[in-house]
Every structure is written in C-alpha cells, then in structure tokens.
Amino acid sequence: xxxxxxxxxxFVCVHNAGRSQMAAAFLTHLAGDRVxxxxxxxxxAGTVNPSVVAAMAxxxxxxxxEVPKVLTVDAxxxxxVVITMGCGDSCPVFPGKRYLDWELPDPAGQGVEAVRPIRDxxxxxxxxxxxxxxxx
Length: 136
Prior knowledge:
The chain is 36% helix and 15% strand. The protein is α/β, with parallel strands linked by helices. The chain has a 4-stranded parallel beta sheet with strand order 2-1-3-4, covered by helices on one side.
C-alpha cells in the first residue's frame, strides 16, 4: 500500500442535483478506490434530477440513491481538486488547491434527451482528469 494519500476531488454546482452528481458518479465508477470523491451544492435541491438519474442509468451507473449535499468549507479544505460547474462566487477558495471551472449546460428542467450530451461531455472530461490525477 503506498504511503501517498489518495487524490481527492470535489465537484460543486448550485443544486448538486445534476452536473456535479454525474461527475462524481463517473469518477467513482471509472477510478474506483484510487480517488476520494465528493460532490456538493451551494444551494442543494431536495432530490437529484430524475432525468440525470435516467441518463446515468443508460450507461450503467446507478445514482438513484444519491441525495444533494450542502457545500461546506471542510469539504473544500479536504479536497485536492475542486471542480466548479456554474456555482459562481459561492465556492470558497483556499490557497494550495487546484480549481477548475467546467462550463456545462444546466440539466435542470431538461428531459433525458437534453441530458445525454451533458452526461457524455462530463464523462469525457472525467476520463481526462483521471489521466492527470489518479496514480496508475
């Protein structure tokens, strides 16, 4: 077992009901236990977007049990990489963290057909991120 801690990634969007949930699920699905994954929202919704759940199920990733979580300062502090998805200035910034902002359409209020291209772009970006941060 290596002594180096696992890389940790936090995905943040406003409601933690769509983009950040898909990103966290893909990273967990594709990287497994080689990375710590968190997701949160600055103003979490009550439930994950049903169209997002359906779109992820189409690619074999079940997020039906996920619930939106509130963004905390501790979650940001505990993460090496913070990826924001449309949360603007509501994401706290700490020195020494790597911040990425992924501009992606918001799936809120969209059907599965509109969510699929967002899902596929998130998966593409997650695969690139794994290549950068996950030890082989």
